[in-house]
Amino acid sequence: MVASVTPSKDAGPILSVRKASKAFGINRALNAVSLDVAAGEMVALIGPSGSGKSTLLRAITGLTPLDAGEGEISVFGRRTQASGRVTAEARQARAGIGFIFQQFNLVGRLSLYTNVALGSLGRIGFWRGLFGRWPAETRTLAMQALARVGIADAAGQRANTLSGGQQQRGAIARALVQRARMVLADEPVASLDPVSARRVMDILRDLNRDDGMTVLVTLHQVDYALRYCDRVVALRAGEIRYDGPASGLSRERLLDIYGPEFEDAYWQGAMA
Fold it and tell me: Which of 5, 20, 81, 235 could covalently link to 51 via disulfide, CB atoms 3.0 to 4.6 Å apart?
């Protein structure tokens, strides 16, 4: 079995964001955003396009540096960003974060199995992985992870021959081999058909509930956020407009978040 993650209820937040700001030219993607996520939570990030959701996820991993100022980010108790700089501790923290991209981010010419096994590079070393010299532990974990997400029979196929849903499940399997403690999923179902999208969301929810894995997922489909996540954080124009239980997202709150177009955002998922 793939090793599970046991959250500590007494520990501090697994993720802490304080006064995070980021501008791209004249466009402010994040404006003094503060957020705590506890171990074992499954949190949906929602909001209209350009609200700062993806920028926030990339800042958490250190892929996008914050603007200089008071902004700080800590992951697993390690300060990863401060004073507009990504710290030396970011690399260590990143080893425990599985990042699921909208466009799958698999190497198309490599087999699905190899893509999943690449999740172990942080433990076995780059050169060993480059030549496919996978230790027995990696081989076992890779096949267990593929079985966990339901695509073990496709292990030998090149990644670019797989469907979008299969590739996204492969990306989740890679995070399992990585032994990620937290998964950041950036619009993981935006490019998928409704059946594949629900399958991917079911897997993320199972990892959260059964393995205690912390999941932070950005979604355009409000219906999916309500269905799969107990907590919802809503951004608009780089600021948090709502942070609370999914049950608290009333029509009035959605209007404040999305404007008059909110019904399109909601029914996109509900009618799928």
Answer: 235
CB 170 within 8 A of CB 106: yes
Q: How far apart are CA 217 and CA 220, in angstroms?
A: 10
Distance between CA atoms of residues 250 and 247, nearest Å = 8
67, 81 contact by CB (below 8 A): no
Cβ-Cβ contacts under 8 Å for 211 (sequence gap 6 or more): 2, 4, 5
pLDDT digit string (tens) for 139-163?
999 999 999 999 999 999 999 999 9
Spatial neighbors of 188 by CB under 8 A, at least 6 apart, are 100, 101, 102, 168, 171, 200, 201, 204, 217
CATH node for 11-96+213-272:
3.40.50.300
Reading across the β-sheet that carries 231-236, which strands appear in turn? 97-100, 182-186, 214-218, 42-46, 231-236, 239-245
Buried b (16+ CB within 10 A) or exposed e, 32-48: ebebebbbbbbbbbbbb
Amino acid at 78: R
3-state secondary structure of 133: coil
8-state DSSP, 68:
S
Model confidence at 10, pLDDT cuts 50, 70, 90, reads: very low
pTM comes to 0.88
Token digits of residue 159 = 């990644």
